[in-house]
# Entry
Amino acid sequence: MHDTAHQHGIRKGRRKILRIPLILILASRNLFHDRIRFVATIVGIVFSVVLVTVQLGLFVSCQRMITATIERARADLWIVPTGAKSFEDTNLLDGQERFHALAIPGIADVVPLVTGYATWHKPDGGTTIIFTVGFDPGKVGLQPWNLIEGGVDDLLTPNGVIVDRSYFTRLGISYIGQQAEISGQRVRVVALTNLIRSFTTAPFVFTTRERARTFLRAPSGDSNTYFLVQVSPGADIAAIRADLSRNLNDAEVITPQEFRSRSLSQWLYGTGAGAALIGGAILGVIVGTVIVAQTLYSSTKDHLNEFATLRAIGSSAFYIHQVILCQAFLSALIGFSIAAVLGLLIVRATKNAALPVIMTPNLTLGLFVLTVVMCALSAISAIIKVTRIDPAVVFNR
# Structure
């Protein structure tokens, strides 16, 4: 008696174990039964995921370009002209802000920056607009990064500037040591960076503050665009910010996070670029959802008799829903795998482009979840159709 009960329990357990593979078998057979329809489904998913990948990858790329200089700067607080919306704003401060800041206990240093747009005269003729960043080579504030030839100390040579290799064509140069002109002043390329790009498309040109003032025809003396405030370890940043703000007239004190948010708001949302990228991603999701929904609905409609048979022999509606959802998941898994490979190829192909597509682990995971959710939502129409099946139709055939 005990053995019989034990064997019955084993058989029951086996049926439970085999239940999941059976769902997979039914789902895969429904999915692969019509190969043309299956290919159309996968193409729709791949198209949708690749489109979303490109749009969101460009969105991430734009974010990094816009905030790169702010995130690379060593600053606990920024003193900026009142109303400054981004790093590319070019209003000048008179320089008194630095002395006010240095008089406040807890501030270790105040590093000035001079930035602004200037005209680059190519060696072989023609001009282009550049964005000049002037800094003190001996100060740890904001300095060029990703240096591949030369160094910051080379700026101490007369007329030295640092440019990015990705802008060689734009600047009309091809090697380090080449000469050009900025606002009528002769300059020489003394160092190169790699992949420091500008969202405004105006190439960054790094040089000393004094040289930058000359290029920008800025007033001499202590005028600067920004001051990077570096606080002593253990000091209360919020209290220092409040004290400093009370002593400033035409400037304001903001945190790096606030400056970053302002820049993103200005360039991504103020110009509509971010909305366009996100809108393209949403369009891709809609297209993919519609294509997969149509395919799953058609497949379910073609197999109504089989689903009715399952209902007639006692299968629950939930079990049949699982089959359809499993079919959607298989579609998502296959489609995403192909799209991920294509996305990786696009990322590599655009690595050195002016606006590369960037993929991060979190973004990849998010795209996979989005693909699964998209396909699951697409299964709703098929599930509704199956729910209305009358098992009696099996006996009318």
